[in-house]
Design goal:
alpha+beta, L-fuculose-1-phosphate Aldolase, nine-stranded mixed sheet, 11 helices, 38% helix, elongated
């Protein structure tokens, strides 16, 4: 059995968590990540027949959430109450490798959470989002939630309208429409850790890879840790440019015609309904 500390998936996960903390996206124990692992890669490092603990899904009645569609799937996930700044130095305490039990209602701990911890309280919301994204893209493996500073600040001064929010972000940087042509989903403020916000996020994830939680943060999904981090990073850069310029008279802008030219050049299809009302009438 190989040393799990040499596993590429664990090294990448720890590196991303450290970067998210360094950038100020995950203060204290804010934010969470879940990463769908391949059984073949995990069994090189762990005995998959050795279950340390079996746990019900955190925060909900055991019968209230059914993850049967992903039963047997294995996830590397951050722990509840764990600080991102500690992940890289002590992954076995701050992370866990969890398998969804056959009944779809429990979690089996295969590694980690050595201090008796458990997955993030948002784990059911992550699983709902994984199921939604896998229905769209079978290669989706990552769900990432964090609190990027400028994206959060933008929530307070910009309409929380999906089309308008997306359009503003696209205009802030040439690369935005290329990186997320599908746009950004937006939810109003909701209590976190609840079934309601998990279901609402998963519903948005059927259409979007990025979902803003109003006055809270953002959810991102992708095929790899790098891709998902990059999606959020691109939104955050655009939000930063917006917040640095929103109070100033705008002399220049990226026009809708230029955005469409970019989309054509890079072979992406912008989400319908994002461009201005005047443009849509033509």
């Amino acid at each position: 059995m190989k040393n799990i500390y040499e596993a590429k998936f664990l090294k990448e996960f720890c590196s991303v968590a450290a970067n998210m903390y360094r950038l100020g996206w995950d203060e204290r124990n804010g934010g969470n990540i879940s990463y769908l692992l391949e059984e073949e890669e995990v069994k090189e490092y762990l005995n998959l027949n050795h279950i340390f603990r079996t746990m019900p899904f955190m925060g909900w009645n055991e019968t209230a959430f059914d993850a049967s569609p992903i039963a047997g799937k294995i996830f590397l996930v951050t722990g509840t109450g764990k600080y991102f700044k500690n992940v890289k130095d002590d992954p076995e305490t701050n992370l866990g490798i969890i398998r969804i039990a056959k009944n779809g209602k429990n979690m089996e701990l295969l590694w980690g959470f050595k201090d008796g911890g458990r997955p993030t309280s948002e784990f059911p919301a992550h699983m709902m989002s994984h199921m939604a994204r896998l229905g769209v893209d079978p290669e989706n493996r990552v769900v990432m939630h964090c609190h990027p500073t400028y994206t959060l600040a933008m929530n307070y001064v910009h309409e929380l309208d999906e089309a308008k929010f997306t359009h503003t972000l696209w205009q802030m940087s040439t690369e935005c429409i290329v990186v997320f042509p599908d746009g950004v989903g937006v939810l109003p403020w909701m209590v976190c850790g609840t079934r309601e916000i998990g279901e609402a996020t998963a519903k948005k994830m059927e259409e979007y890879r990025l979902v803003v939680w109003g006055m809270h943060g953002i959810y991102g999904a992708g095929k790899t840790l790098d891709e998902t981090f990059g999606l959020i990073e691109t939104v955050e850069k655009a939000a930063q440019v917006y917040m640095l310029t929103a109070h100033l008279p705008r002399i220049n802008t990226i026009t809708d015609a230029q955005l469409k030219e970019l989309a054509t050049c890079f072979g992406v299809t912008p989400r319908a309904g994002i461009f201005t009302q005047e443009d849509k009438k033509r």
